[in-house]
Amino acid sequence: MATKKSIGIRTLFGTLIIVTGLLGFALTAGLCAEQQPAPTENKGITIAPLSAVDLGPEIPGMQGRQLRLRMLTIEPGGVLGVHSHKNRPGAAYMLKGTVIEHRGDVAKEYGAGQTWAEDGNVIHWLENKGTSPAVLIVTDIFKQP
Question: What's the whole-model pTM score?
């Protein structure tokens, strides 16, 4: 004959506490893993024009566009807000410091001597989490207003 076993109230209550704690941890971990929204404003940014070439007289079909070269400094804690490179392809060279470039849910750190390209499909933003200014040399083909 089978004997009937009962679960004590303490065992049941303890199990409930453990399950609730695990669910709370899982929810908290999921919220912490969410990506922060991309900043839309620049903070701690200095942009210095270095040179520019009017491409209209140089290349047929490039009227109203210029090739420009600029030095971009991002102070510690600074951000270059989210922006697109549609109709404005370019490239960047890290002169000194480090930045984190965010493209969608991918973040990549760049340091001195590294480069990246920015074609028309790029939508990204940059941040300097370091303790010293990050200096980039950036070039792009810009449509003059």
Answer: 0.73
